[in-house]
Design a protein that fits this description.
binds zinc ion
């Protein structure tokens, strides 16, 4: 059987609810945390945010008994249940193949093979994007896609809002995003299948997930290139359906 290698993946993230991925700053006293947007005003999901949910997705896979063997090989660096110092595999077992998480995402001692870029909004390309880009939308129009919401902490006993505990966030509507991630080396299919499974297993992105915000679905496909020409693609779903065969390669 031919062994397949992949060079990049195109990934879609479809939000099913409103979400909040902050820009890291606010608007003085008006809004505490603005939604992350690009210079054109169009919502984006930063590569670091996506890499974070994929790391969580990979780690979560290991809870399935199907991945028992892989669970035993994850190094301490990626295992929050081991006390410090948690050494990455590049240090604790130098010269050996890194664990799945170090391989894809890196550790303090080595870079992961994935180059992350920001994911851009692809919802209603004809409608939303030109509108937000031009800045010619009314506040009402913009609020269909990005709107502020308030949250607060209550005093348990009386139900009153605690002093200085009222927050205003901006949140994005149930938008769709797409991004391409590139691999610094060709990834063999028996490894790529884990990444596909982790992404399909991802359920939410951004803050306040426990309150039902940011529920999402990920999908995508891998692509192989030879001499700058795309020679093969494989859907995540299709790979994962045959995961038992792929893992054994
Ligand atoms: Zn490791």
């Amino acid at each position: 059987m031919n062994i397949c290698y992949y060079n990049e993946a195109t990934v879609q993230i479809k939000l099913k609810t409103q979400y909040h991925v902050g820009s890291g700053f606010g608007l003085g006293r008006v809004i505490d945390s603005l939604l992350r947007i690009n210079p054109d005003g169009v919502p984006v999901l930063p590569g670091t945010t996506v890499s974070g949910i994929v790391a969580q997705g990979l780690y979560d896979l290991l809870h399935f008994s199907f991945f028992e063997r892989e669970r035993d090989t994850i190094c301490a660096f990626h295992n929050p249940h081991i006390p410090e110092p948690r050494l990455p595999c590049a240090i604790s077992r130098p010269g050996e193949d890194p664990c799945m998480l170090c391989y894809f995402l890196g550790s303090s001692a080595q870079e992961g093979i994935i180059a992350w870029e920001d994911f851009t909004c692809t919802s209603d390309k004809e409608l939303i994007l030109p509108m937000l880009k031009s800045g010619k939308c009314s506040a009402d129009e913009r609020q269909q896609y990005i709107k502020p919401y308030a949250s607060h902490k209550q005093e348990m006993r009386t139900g009153t809002v605690l002093d200085r505990h009222l927050f205003f966030f901006e949140e994005g509507a149930a938008l769709e995003f797409e991004g391409t991630i590139r691999f610094s080396e060709s990834v063999q299919e028996n490894k790529a299948v884990y990444l596909a499974a982790a992404m399909l297993n991802t359920r939410a992105v951004g803050r306040r997930k426990s309150r039902g915000k940011g529920a999402c679905k990920m999908s995508g496909s891998f692509a192989s290139f030879e001499n700058n020409k795309q020679v093969r693609t494989a859907e995540f779903r299709e790979l994962v359906e045959n995961i038992e065969d792929r893992k054994a390669l």
